[in-house]
Structures are given as C-alpha cells and as structure tokens.
From TrEMBL:
Protein known as: valine--tRNA ligase
Gene Ontology biological process terms, A to Z: valyl-tRNA aminoacylation
Entry's Gene Ontology molecular function annotations: ATP binding; valine-tRNA ligase activity
The keyword Nucleotide-binding is assigned to this record: yes
Source species taxonomy: Eukaryota, Metazoa, Spiralia, Gnathifera, Rotifera
Length: 346
C-alpha cells in the first residue's frame, strides 16, 4: 500500500549522479522500480563530473589518495567548497572530471562571508527589483539547460556587486535619522518590504547551490508582519519563477544605472591615485548633452553615496588649459568629467 509521502515524492523527475556508476547503480534502480511499481523512478539523468585530486587521479581508498573533507572544512567549509566546484571553469578539463584543489574554493569562501553579512543591511530601488528579475530568469534558464556556470554567475552578480556594493550603500542614508518623521518612516517601511523581497528570493535562488548557508540565513531573515511567503524552511519553498517577476524588469532603468555606475567607477579610480585624499569633498563638473546631464542630476544621491562628490555642476564649455584648478577625470562618447581641485589637492 502506497503511503501519502510515497505518492507525493515518487516518481521524481531528475537523478543526479556520476557516470562511473551508471550501469552498476542507475540501471538497477530503474529495473527495481519497474519490477516493484511498474513506473520509472525518474525521466532524466544528469551525469555530473567526477572529483579527482590535484594530480588528476580518481580518488580511491586503494590508492590512498582520498582527500579528507575535514582538511577543507577547517579553512574553507563544505558549503564554500561546493560553490568553488561549480564555478571554477579551469578545473573542468573536459566536463567529466574535477581536479580538487584547496585554493579553488577560497574565492567562494570570501563570497559566502559577504553574503552572510548582507542580511544586516537594507537595500532598495526599482533597479534592484529589475536585477532580481534578471537573476531569476538566468537561473531558470540555466537549470533547464544544465548550465551551472550561468546560474552561479547570476547569483553572484545579484548578491555582491548589485545588492551589496551598490544598493546597500545607497539606502544607508534613509536610516540615519534618530527620530524619523512620518515621511521617513514610510520610506523606511518601503525599503524593508523591497529588501525582504530581494533577500527572500535571493536565498531561494541560492538554495540549490548552497543549501546549508541559505537555510541558516533564511531562518535569520525577519518575516513581514503579515506573514507573506513565510515558509518554515527553504526546503519546502517554491523556487522563484521568472513569470512572477517580469513586471519588475525595466531595461531603461538598467541602462541608466549602468551609465551612472560606469562613471562612479571612473571617479573612484581617480581617488585610488596615490596622494589623493579620499575624504576631501569635491565638485563634479560635467560636459555633456542635456539628456546625460539630466541623468546625472537624477542619480546624484547614488553618486554621492558611492563616491565623495558633494556637488554636481553642468558646464557648457570645457575648462581651458589656463584653468589649472580643474583636472580631467574621464571621457566617453556621452560625457566628460572634471574635478575642481581644492587648495589641498592642488
């Protein structure tokens, strides 16, 4: 007699396994299932790579070359090791084997640390919702095509450069007030709701890649007062679907923010010059078309949050050679950027 759990979980759709046990194990599973239930246990088989040591030899107890997982857990952890496997292209010589090297997981260890710290901040904006929509679309497409590098890239880009590096910094100012007025409270509540959407769905995206870290963070995630989407565990939470987030996709905003962040990178590159004090506020002068100038003004708060600019001015004529207090920062096909130096910088 079939139990309710059996009816719910059998048959499955996909089996993930190594090609070395295709006939010794997978075929036997199929034959046994057909004999006992008359049904296939799964309809697809994904053959993952075989982990080898750094010398490209298959791990074997007979050879005595099995790497002790505890050696990795001490410095890296299994979670970060798994992420390192899936995103390290150079360690996939032909797609069938992975050469296990401790150093391949170190970048993922740093990423996991940044991801863990993200939950203490509160980012917000239409752009981040658009980028969330894009990340969900990329993950959904990647799983259908078994392109795991596409999945890990989408997750990494959403969490680190987009959510952490840009929007966490951008919205900090909205929580500086000790006694926020009604307008500030409403703004903070809006930010918190959008933040919950980003964190909740971001963790759901990450679960198949890093299940333990995602679950730990999910349990720490404050839930909305209305209990919206408050599942007790990510294990039983549906994976985000792109159809649910298409309404947030905004190519215009993404293009605008890409222009601004490119300018921000150029500005910060100037500040990295030896001898230039980063704490010194300066005025940014922009020579560009009216549309680009308007764009810079519209995103002034974003520029200010991510740089040390305290004022933006639009100029019609470029500074002359005699005006030595001006320094050229960057030139693109759309704009030219200048700083006016203070006495200290001169």
């Amino acid at each position: 007699m079939e139990t309710d759990d059996f009816k719910k979980n059998f048959p499955t759709t996909l089996l993930q396994t190594g090609h070395d046990i295709l006939f010794p194990w997978v075929v036997r599973m199929v034959m046994m299932s057909l004999e006992l239930t008359g049904r296939l246990p799964f309809t697809e088989v994904y053959l993952h790579a075989i982990i080898r040591n750094a010398d490209e030899c298959k791990m074997s107890q007979t050879l005595g070359n099995v790497i002790n997982p505890l050696d990795f857990i001490h410095d890296i952890s299994l979670e970060k090791l798994q992420e390192g496997f899936k995103s390290s292209k150079e360690d996939y010589p032909d797609g069938q084997y992975i050469n296990l090297n401790k150093f391949c997981a170190e970048p993922s260890r740093d990423f996991c640390n940044d991801l863990f710290l993200t939950g203490t901040e509160t980012p917000c904006d239409l752009w981040i919702l658009s980028r969330l929509s894009y990340a969900i679309e990329q993950c959904e497409s990647g799983f259908k095509k078994y392109q795991f590098s596409q999945i890990t890239t989408a997750i990494y880009n959403f969490w680190l450069p987009e959510l952490n590096d840009i929007y966490i910094e951008y919205v900090k100012k909205d929580f500086y007030a000790d006694k926020p007025n009604l307008e500030q409270q409403n703004r903070q509540n809006t930010i918190k709701l959008i933040l919950y959407t980003c964190l909740n769905n971001g963790l759901r995206l990450t679960t198949p890649i890093m299940p333990y870290l995602s679950e730990e963070l999910y349990q720490r995630l404050p839930k909305p007062n209305n209990g919206q989407n408050s599942s007790p565990s990510l294990c039983i939470t549906p994976y985000p679907q792109s159809s649910e987030f298409n309404q947030y996709h905004n190519k215009t905003i993404e293009k605008d923010v890409a222009t601004i962040t490119d300018a921000i990178d150029k500005i910060n590159s100037y500040y990295s010059t030896p001898g230039v004090p980063r704490h010194e506020p300066v005025t940014l002068y922009i020579k560009s078309s009216s549309s680009i100038s308007t764009l810079f003004k519209e995103y002034f708060e974003l520029i200010k949050s991510l740089t040390n600019i305290d004022n933006i001015q639009i100029i019609n004529d470029e500074p002359t050679v005699d005006q030595k207090e001006y320094i050229h920062i960057a030139t693109t096909s759309d704009y030219r950027l200048f700083f006016k130096l203070t006495d200290d910088l001169e």
